[in-house]
Amino acid sequence: MKIPQEDIEELRGELEAERDSLEEELASHGRVQNDTGEWEGASIGFEGEEADPNDVADQIEELATNIPLVKELEGRHTDAIDALEKMDEGVYGICEECDEPIDLDRLKANPSARTCIKHADR
Ligand SMILES: [Zn+2]
């Protein structure tokens, strides 16, 4: 089954919007590591301020929240980018496990799905 072009365009729009909003979220909760280009959780907005013990506690709490959050956001960001690359290569909508086409309803629910419903692990 080939995905109709109009559905591809609709899904592409959703993936691009998802990618952009994830990049904004990543920028507000983390920073890019210069050496690897990967995101890491960070506490934003405390730099240059006096080291008030309350600020330090807030900062630690923020980091504890942001590190796993950024990890999750980055995973979704990678999924969206990979899906867009597959569209460019003409292999979008193919299960990574069995090479069978992914159900269109599944793609519409989750445009960055990597697997068919049988191989869904999340
Ligand atoms: Zn499969």
Description:
The protein is mainly alpha-helical and 122 residues long. It has a domain at 5-87. The protein is built from 3 helices and 2 strands. It has helices at 5-29, 53-89, 104-109, and strands at 30-32, 39-41. Strands 1-2 form a two-stranded antiparallel ribbon. The mean pLDDT is 90. The site of zinc ion (ZN) has 8 residues, from loops.
Note the main sheet.
2 strands, antiparallel
Helix content: 55-70%
Overall outline? elongated
Radius of gyration: 18 Å
Average pLDDT: 90
User: Whole-Å distance between the termini?
Assistant: 24 Å
Q: How many distinct beta strands?
A: 2
Secondary structural class: mainly alpha
Instruction: Identify the strand order in the major beta sheet.
Output: 1-2
Order of helices and strands: HEEHH
Please indicate the percent range of residues in DSSP E strands (runs of 2 or more).
under 5%
DSSP helix count? 3
Unreliably modeled segments:
none
Specify the oligomeric state.
Answer: single chain
The molecules bound to the chains, other than polymers, are: zinc ion
Descriptive terms for the model:
122 residues, two-stranded antiparallel ribbon, mainly alpha, binds zinc ion
Q: Summary?
A:
This protein is mainly α. It has helices spanning 5-29, 53-89, 104-109, and strands spanning 30-32, 39-41. 56% of the residues lie in helices and 5% in strands.
